């Protein structure tokens, strides 16, 4: 007996139809044409290969100081944001904060911070604090608090509730239960998320530099403005290399520490 297997069922066809309608509406709204994109693609590739390649290897030394600044911004902002998020995380978790209004308020606060991109924070703080490293540190710190608070409180939510109850039954105070019960269980997760945030910070610190928040991004932006495309390409290459190296190192650290 032969069975006929259909490549597409009615649900698949309906889903594809909805996606197609959404795409056509957005393309019409934005005046976007995929055909025009394909026509212009060779020109874009030609620009990259002719104007940006080969990279200006001689500009390598000029990027060392901005690159170091980028790492410093990423690390300092990580220290500030992780310290603040550590306390906020315990205020958000049901297992360590039993007063629901405080939990909801802190979660809402973190959600607001999390949904504003780091580059927007940088654009907001540049007029207030001026162009430079300080703005980058503040922008990344504020931007990271939302994400890291969520990472931390979700980690705390996974701790063993029975252990916390047992410690409380011995007569420990609420703070002692957190100190000797919740924190030791949550530390591996905290470390993992902090290392991940460091990777993200290094990428973000390069991006926010494009809008004046210091670091290698600002140096790349200046070279692009001066149409020194092959010099800017050197900076982009360094960011890619550093991002890959950071990811490799962080994976090693996770395996050894956690």
Give an account of the 3D structure.
The protein is mainly alpha-helical and 258 residues long. Helices cover 79% and strands 0% of the residues. The chain has 10 helices and no strands. Helix 9 packs antiparallel against helix 10. It is globular and about 75 Å long.
Indicate the topology:
Layout: H1 10-30, H2 34-52, H3 64-92, H4 100-114, H5 118-129, H6 133-156, H7 161-169, H8 174-208, H9 216-225, H10 229-257
Attribute tags:
about 260 residues
Give a concise summary.
By secondary structure, the chain is an all-alpha fold. It has helices at 10-30, 34-52, 64-92, 100-114, 118-129, 133-156, 161-169, 174-208, 216-225, 229-257.
Order of helices and strands: HHHHHHHHHH
Output mean pLDDT.
80
Distance between the termini: 55 Å
Number of helices: 10
- Characterize the biggest β-sheet: none
Helical/strand content category: mainly alpha
List segments where confidence is low: pLDDT < 50 over at least 5 consecutive residues: none
Oligomeric state of the chains in view: single chain
- Strand-residue proportion: under 5%
User: What is the 3D shape?
Assistant: globular
Query: What is the C-alpha radius of gyration, as a whole number of Å?
Result: 24 Å
Query: Helix fraction?
Result: over 70%
* Strand segment count: 0
């Amino acid at each position: 007996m032969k069975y006929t297997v259909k490549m597409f069922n009615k649900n698949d066809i309906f889903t594809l139809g909805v996606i197609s309608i959404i795409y056509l509406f957005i393309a019409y709204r934005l005046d976007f044409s995929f055909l025009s994109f394909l026509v212009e693609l060779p020109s874009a590739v030609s620009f990259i290969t002719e104007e940006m390649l080969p990279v200006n290897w001689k500009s390598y030394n000029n990027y060392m100081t901005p690159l170091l600044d980028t790492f410093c911004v990423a690390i300092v902002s990580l220290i500030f944001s992780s310290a603040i998020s550590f306390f906020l995380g315990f205020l958000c978790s049901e297992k360590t904060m039993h007063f629901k209004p405080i939990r909801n308020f802190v979660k809402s606060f973190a959600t607001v911070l999390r949904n504003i991109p780091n580059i927007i924070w940088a654009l907001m703080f540049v007029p207030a604090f001026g162009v430079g490293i300080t703005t980058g540190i503040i922008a990344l710190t504020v931007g990271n608090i939302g994400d890291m608070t969520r990472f931390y409180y979700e980690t705390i939510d996974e701790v063993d509730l029975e252990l916390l109850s047992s410690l409380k039954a011995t007569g420990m105070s609420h703070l002692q239960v957190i100190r000797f019960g919740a924190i030791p269980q949550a530390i591996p997760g905290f470390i993992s998320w902090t290392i991940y945030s460091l990777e993200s910070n290094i990428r973000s610190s390069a991006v926010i530099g494009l809008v004046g928040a210091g670091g290698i991004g600002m140096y790349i932006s200046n070279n692009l403005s001066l149409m020194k495309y092959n010099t800017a390409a050197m900076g982009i290459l360094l960011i890619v290399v550093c991002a890959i190296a950071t990811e490799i190192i962080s994976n090693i650290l996770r395996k050894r520490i956690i």
